[in-house]
Amino acid sequence: MSAKYQLPCACGRSVAIEPKQAGESVVCECGAVLLAPTMLKMATLEVASEEPALAPSKIGPWGGGQRMELLGGVLLVAATTLAILAVLLLRPVSRYEAVGPERIHESFQHLSPWQSWRAWESMKIGIDPRPDKRYVRQSRNYFSGLGVAAVLAIAGVGLVVEGMRVAKGKRGWIG
Ligand SMILES: [Zn+2]
After folding, report:
1. Helix or strand or coil: residue 119?
2. What is the 8 CA–ligand 1 centroid distance (Å)?
3. pLDDT, greater one: 101 or 72
4. How far is CA 40 from CA 5, 23, 33, 71, 128, in A?
């Protein structure tokens, strides 16, 4: 790794430059465009330390990028958990799935005529194409759960990607 030099800026900060950047314009953190000096003049500049203390002392060992990555990871785990829970607990079960035909037949044998008639009436409602309210409610919960999980997953992926980008950019800027 070639030596780096600190090119001071009017704002008080300095920009780390490499000899190969001699004569090129570099941008300071403040946005000012600085002209890197020639190689000869660059040698008179302060040598940038290999492991600068600026970032860790300010942000700590966990930089903004890593925090984002961590948060993204937590969100992804939460999204996965939520999706699994939604499938396990909220998956809608239609009346026909919940009550098998044998069960219905069996239960009819223990019913009084009046109860049979009531049961038959309720079954007609079940067969009726009108929406099964319980099923609709379950479906709504189920798809809300999956929707929230999807949003969390997208946010998690976004944070991880952004965190990696930030962390990489910082590493690139320092080293
Ligand atoms: Zn500056």
Report:
1. helix
2. 8
3. 72
4. 12, 11, 21, 46, 90
Q: Which residues pair with 16 in a beta bridge?
A: 6
Quick one: tokens of 121? 């009436």
Query: From CA 93, how far away is CA 168, in angstroms rounded?
Result: 47
| Cα of 16 from ligand 1 centre, angstroms | 12
> What is the distance in A from the centroid of ligand 1 to the CA of 173?
14
CA 32 – ligand 1 centroid, Å: 5
**What is the band of 136 on the pLDDT scale with cuts at 50, 70, 90?**
confident
Listed by start position, the domains of the chain span: 5-50, 53-113+141-175
Query: Quick check: 78 and 153 in contact, CB under 8 A?
Result: no
pTM: 0.41
Cβ(41)–Cβ(4) below 8 Å: no
